[in-house]
Every structure is written in C-alpha cells, then in structure tokens.
Amino acid sequence: MKYPNLKFIISFAIFLYCNAIFAQQPDIYRVSKEQKMYEFSVVWKELSYNFANMDNCPEVNLDSLYRQYLPIITETQNDWEYCRIMQKFLCRFNNGHTYSQNPDYLYNYVAYPLFTTKNENGKVFIDKVCKIYSNLQKDDEILKINDLTPTEYIEKFTLPYQNSSNIETKKKNAKIGFGANPALNLDNEKFLLTIKRKKNIIENIEIPFICHYDYQKDTIKYQQILDFYNIDRTDLEQLKNIFIADKKNNFAYIKLYACNEDFNKFYVEKYDSILNFGNLILDLDGNFGGDGRETNTAIFTLTDKDSLRWFDLKTRINNAHYKAKAASRIYWFEPEEVTQEDKDFYYPYFYNNAYEDVENDFFANPFSSDVRYKGNIYVIAGENTASAAEQIALTMQQSKKVTLLGKTTCGALGQPLTIKLPSGINVFINTSKTFNAKGQDVSSGIKPDYQYDFSEIYKIENPQKRLEKFIEVIKRFEVKK
Q: pLDDT at position 186, please?
C-alpha cells in the first residue's frame, strides 16, 4: 500500500493554518516604522516652510516639537495609533485648517461610544443615546468617567485632538461621546461611568464602544446603530435651512446651515421675499462651511457694492539667498557690525517668519444695483461658524450696512495646503494669514461688532418666538450705536 507523502501533508496543514490566522489579522499594520518616520518628517518639513500661523501657538517651537513627537510616532503599535498621534501633533498648531484625515481602510476598525452629551452650568449630561444601550438614559448626569471627572477626561483625552484657531471652539467641540472619542475596535474600549439619575440615584455603569461592522446587517442591533448614526444623534432642526419673517418689525430671517448646493438653492428661492423687508438677519451660527462657490450669489446680492475684494491674505515666503545672508551675519559678524536695516530685511528669512502679500483682485458684482438688497443686515455667527461661512461674514463686512453679532468665529480661514502621504493619510496645513477690511489679522477668528451669547434664544422651539428675541437683542444694540 502506498502512503501519501507525510512531509507534504504536514506542510499543507501548516499552510492552511497560517492562512486562517492571517485572514483573521486586522489590516492595521500596513505602515512600517521607517515609513512613519519618513511621513512625519515630510509633515514637519511642510509645516516649516508653509504654515502661516505660528503666532497663534506661541508655546510651540516647531523643531523641539518634532524631536518630542518623533520617537512617539515611530513607536506607535499600529496604523490607527499612528494616525491619532499625527492628528494630536497637528492640533498643537491651533488652526482650523491644519489637521489630518485617516486612510479609508481604517474606518472598518473604528468604534465609538454611541451617545452624545450636552454641557449645562458646568455639568455634563447625556443627550442622545443609541437604543443599543439599555442602561443609559437621556439627562443622566456624568459624575465620573474612567475614574476621572468629565473636565479631567476632556482635557486629557478629547481637547488635544481638536483643531481650531479659536480656543473657545476647541472647548465647545471637545465633548464626551460620539465623534470626539473614537477608539480602535480591537481594544474593546469601554467607558466606566458614574452617573446620577433623577431622584439623585447614583449608579456605576459600563458602556462599550460600538463598531457597526461587528453586527450582521439583518439584525435589530445593526439597525439601531444606523438609526443613531443617521437620525437619533442629530438635531434635525440644526440641519435645516429656515426662512421666517416679522412684518410688524420689518425683519426677515434666514438660517443657512451649510455652504452647499442646498444653501444656494434655498437662498435664491427666498430672495424675492427678503427684498420685501428693510432688515435681514443672516444666521450662520453652526455653519461649518463647505463649498465657497455656492455662497457667491448671497454675497454679491447682499453687498451693495459694484465690486468686491474677498479679503487680504499674507503667505510665507522662503528665499535661500536671503536666509544665507542672515546666517552669515548671525554666525560670523560682530553684533555691532549688523545694521538694523539688515536685521529687519534678512532675519525673517532665517527665522522662517517672512511673509508676502497675496495678490487679490477686485471682482465685479454680476448683479446690477437695482436687484441688490438695500436694507440693514445683521449676521449672526459663533464659535462653530467656520471656513466658507466665515468668508461670507468677512466679505460682507466691507459694507457699512452689515453688523456682525454673536461670538468670535472658529478661525478656519486661509488656504490649506493638501499633502497626500503614501499611507493614505491626508494632511492639511494652513498657508495664509487673513485680514479684514480694516487690516486686522482675523486668522484666529472674526470678532463680532457686538459680542452676545445667543444660546438661550436657540433653545426656544417656536421659530417665530425665536425671531422675536433676536429682534429684541438687535434693537438694544442699535440703541447703543
């Protein structure tokens, strides 16, 4: 009797076993230590040459920070941890247009706590909850999270990953819960919460992080997760464009929640109605921006000028010859041999803080004067008014009939440079300082003409009643003018 080759059988069995093990390995180990070092050095180099807003992070020395983070980056255990540290590094530069995006393949391995929170009077409460959690309820107060107070947890684990030029925006967005606290699904991350319920009942509960890829699509739990993603966690009122009017006070009100195709379509639909009122409230609070091209019609029709200049910019300039001139004076000249004129001209190139103006043309208004809005305009903005929405406010401030109310905006202005790294990470670096019509640097956010906290007014559910309160506030500021 002829027996099969025993070596072949053993080899084949080992092959099948190894393939089974390999198939179970998560795809989170693509980036080698050497590649991490290379990519991080590319980011540092681009920041050194192109980042325009070091004055908004005065505590950061770029070279020292690079040396501090280099061993941390290279010792990360997987691609997810590498990407998180990259984002944490970029957030040290306090800029809304300086951040990173993870490679697409990592999103299959991300888990989240499926609840949101709200802050009231210094306390943190559960707001929206996924139905997959049976032990967590809306309005539960969080007393401790993983043995830390909410403030301690936010400062340690959430705030360092927020990118914004405005520190108040950072604090507002650094919340506990969905979006702000992602984790690698393989780590089986959990929140240990101490919560206080109604009637002062205190409980300790365990909240696991959830990844929807762990559930089959035809299950109830999978549907509960999707419902939370798409419906439950969202305040649908905040995702609506709104138009209402108050004939008695001669006010129209339009809220535009994002700078997209819907923004332009809704605005054009309501423009004839806007023209019937002598006062317009343009509400951009919570508008994170989007496509600036979709805002052009609103900007040109609401700004009664024949031509507009978007805003002034300055960008970094590098000149190797001038840098060498500075180096020779710093290292080889006696201090008294260097004139102040040479210091002023050459030294900025050596210290990487030389800037030049960005040419910005005037744009002819495509709308004739007879179709432009002639009334008073009150723009409402806040910490989460960002990017293209900020540009609306900044451009419209060229008109004397425009008044900006609310809080200092996010500070996501300027042109970001896109860097595509081999790993799939996209890095964005802001390349310009932004100035308003008065020549003031507004790169870290646009300050309103009148500071006001509208948060209590936004809690009013009835839009008409809400408009009445807006008008009351505006009239009070008009008296002060």
A: 85
> Is residue 70 one of the residues assigned to a domain?
no
**How many domains, the chain?**
3
| pTM (predicted TM-score) | 0.87
Indicate if 226 and 374 belong to the same structural domain. Answer: no
**CATH number for the domain harbouring residue 215:** 2.30.42.10
Does residue 6 have a pLDDT over 90? Answer: no
> pLDDT per residue over 303-339, tens digit each?
989 998 888 999 999 999 999 999 999 999 999 999 9
CB 145 within 8 A of CB 153: yes
Same domain for 399 and 447?
yes
| 292 in the same domain as 200 | no
CB 289 within 8 A of CB 282: no
Token pair recorded at residue 330 = 């710093």
The tokens describing 178, both together, are 């969905």
Task: Quickly list DSSP for 99-162.
Answer: EEE--GGGGGGEEB--EEEEEETTEEEEEEE-TT-SS--TTPEEEEETTB-HHHHIIIIIGGG-
CB 456 within 8 A of CB 465: no
pLDDT tens string 21-79: 334 568 999 999 999 999 999 999 999 999 999 999 999 999 999 999 999 999 999 99
Assigned token pair, 71: 């061993």
Enclosing domain of residue 274: 237-314+359-415+432-480
